[in-house]
Amino acid sequence: MPSVKNTQSNSEYHHEIDGLRAISVVVIVLFHLKVAGFLGGFIGVDIFFVISGYLITRIILFNLAEGSFTFNDFYTRRITRILPALVATVVVILPLAMYLQQPAALVHTAKESIYALFSLSNVYFWTESSYWAPASEKYVLLHTWSLGVEEQFYLVYPLLLVAFHRLAGIKGVIALLLVIVVVGTIASEMMLKTDRSAAFFFTPLRFYEFALGGLAVALTGGRVLQKSPWVSGIATLIGLALIFYGAITFNAFTALPGITILVPLLGALLILLAGPSPSARILLMNPVMSWLGKISYSLYLVHWPIIVFYRYYYGSDLTVPEQAALFLLILAAAALLNRTVERRFRLSHHGKTTASGVPSRSVLLGILVAIIFISTICALLITTKGWPSRMPDGAQALMEIRLQKDMKLLIKFLKEHCTPQGEVFCGGRQPGKFNILLLADSRGPDIYIALKAAYPDANIQTSYASGCAPVFSPSIGSSPFFADCPQLNEERLKIALDAPAGDIIFLAQNLNDWRSAAVLETVKRLREAGKTVYLLGQFKFVEERSPIELSIDMLRFDPEGTNFEKYVIANPFEMDEEYADQVRGMGAVYISNKGFFYDGGYHFTDRKTGKFLTFDGLHLNSFGAGKFGIYLRENYPLQ
Questions:
Q1: Are strands 459-464 and 435-440 parallel, antiparallel or unpaired?
Q2: Looking at CB atoms within 10 Å, which of 283, 535, 547, 548 has the fewest?
């Protein structure tokens, strides 16, 4: 195999990589804008990892072959390449957060900023919550988790590469990369089964993606695909097809990264191996793709904060014109950041100064000073608990409400009243009474209270687990919060199937599009077994923030309370129209929640008392559960 030195130059510019970068960042932006058809656009980050692995491996191996590699030069270039634009982004974000965000959210943003600047975002979000948790959509610097992974990779990878190169040359490097790819893929797949969040955020479990790009450097020694324009052109097209397959067909519930992510990653590998093929010249090396690729890092940095802040102020549901306008705004902001910061602080070829003549040491010192200053500001925001004095008096009063504690009260009430406590159900069947078997996810505690208020003479047995929808489907009936969900469902649904015909099966879960088919199938099977079935319908009708948070924002930005509708999701309770008739056609009872929250206008407070009915837009509090019980009694009497 020819040496790296003889086959490629470190200074040789690969324009097709700009096109690959462009595709990666565009599918990410489309995914975050929630553009239809790009549910898997998050795989663009994985493509970036492959590109980074390719470029870093090429740089290091070439410099090793030249005898010019130094760790000092490598890390200086990485710091000046990544941190100036990131620092500038945080500098702009913090004032906006101080204006737009409530104290708790501002404290979170301050913490995010510190972790981002110290390349530890992935660790922070790993300990905080899942990337896919609804709350994550409010985190302004959530996207910097990938920068944390990349920068941690840069710390370790050069040491390994240099060590193996010195021990066994290019063959040692290839062996190292192959081991990382194989072992890393297996480890990631295994971790997905026990801790999906760790598989997503933990840097060592992402190394195999970078190593796959590194293999492309070693494999290009023979330039097999590039010998034939026809073969290289086909390889580029296949690579693009694999990437778009992942971007279009994957979604939040696809088990990733693991083995499955290799589909789009192999697509990226093919494009790298094919080089500037005829297809690449047309699709990846045209002026538009080249420009997008050159500003891709800035584009990645600015896109998510812009989307989060816009949705924070104007509501979470984006229309097509809003998506288009935001995309253009993101492009403009990225171009500005790229021109004023990213390009200005990039080191020249010799590495002693930036392109504008600033010494590299001055750049490093400036970055250090900026990080210390920003961290100090963030520490003050954290210490003052988000600077609450900037809020209006009414908002400060609302901030004192801690309705999240109500969930603990709900659970306490259930455990005290639903006895005996069994492994599957609490409560036991009582002959001669209306017996209700409540099967639920985290809705169990509040719906239990509602059922007690609605049907005081009924005997209620309850089985619930957070995130665990009571369905027969093993793939849908799984929960990141409760590992034994499939087993629980098997046991509790068997008990429901075996229950006497007169007993009522009450199904309560967060009913949404991805669960609906499994829920309908569960209703069908229970009805075919002769069971009386009640199904709680769609509940959530506001997005992103809790009712308390929305009320605070309305006091700040809309004291007249005229813009509540902007926080309501598009077509609220549309699932009633889509599924209610199907459920009734099976002979089951579909419980619509719309009448509880709508009386000429949507609301989440009791019209008479002004008290909140729900603390998070998905679960009722104790007061709301009691009110919902009255609603059930009046509209859905027991059959």
A1: parallel
A2: 283
CATH code at position 432: 3.40.50.1110
Half-sphere exposure of 263 (CA within 13 A, CB side): 18
The residue range of the domain holding 273 is 4-23+42-390
The pLDDT of residue 351 is 72
Residue 606 has pLDDT above 70, yes or no: yes
If you average pLDDT over residues 515-523, what whole number do you get? 94
108 neighbors 183 (Cβ within 8 angstroms): no
Q: What SS3 class is residue 440?
A: strand
Asked if residue 309 belongs to a domain, the reply is yes
Question: Is residue 582 over pLDDT 70?
Answer: yes
Of 290, 237, 292, 293, the closest CA to residue 267 belongs to 237
Q: Where are the alpha helices (DSSP H) in 315-443?
A: 320-337, 360-383, 393-399, 405-417
Cα(190)–Cα(86) distance, integer angstroms:
33
- Of the listed ranges 372-376, 400-404, 415-419, the one predicted with least confidence: 400-404
Residue 32 lies in a domain: no
Question: pLDDT at residue 224 above 80?
Answer: no
Instruction: Indicate if the pLDDT at residue 7 is higher than 50.
Output: no
341 with 442, same domain? no
Same domain, 347 and 231: yes
pLDDT value at position 1? 36
Instruction: Read off the tokens for 29.
Output: 């932006």
Domains contained in the chain, number: 2
Domain assignment present for 595: yes
